[in-house]
């Protein structure tokens, strides 16, 4: 099906034709509004809808809504050349959906805390299923920081007294 056939089909339905006409009018008004706005604001005006006595301007952030509201009198004057019955300009914020955003960020990979990794290791040590215990160890190994030492590891790694019988830490007196 060619574009001409699609366009002809869409024009054959009165409701669709009316919607297309309204969309064309709104697009013409948006073009007029964009010419009035300073460059930084233009990129943030998404859509214009004409109501009986006002123009509704949609922006993607509240940060841009305030300067647009200050320019409302100029916007009304510009739109008034096309639609003389327009008396006011309303600015609405419509944040972009994730799939509409221009920049796509990779999803942030969540990392395990060292505290959670310690719990996984402790749970793995008490398991009877070696496959599940190995899975817990692999998951714990993906933690950001090595898990906190367990009591057994503290005693293993603590320096010993010259006699070699007791650790020199707080426990050895």
From TrEMBL:
Pfam families: DciA. InterPro entries: DciA-like (IPR007922). Residues 93-114, 143-173 are annotated as: Disordered. It comes from the Bacteria. Residues 95-105 have a biased composition (Basic and acidic residues). Residues 163-173 have a biased composition (Polar residues). This is DciA family protein. It comes from Thioalkalicoccus limnaeus.
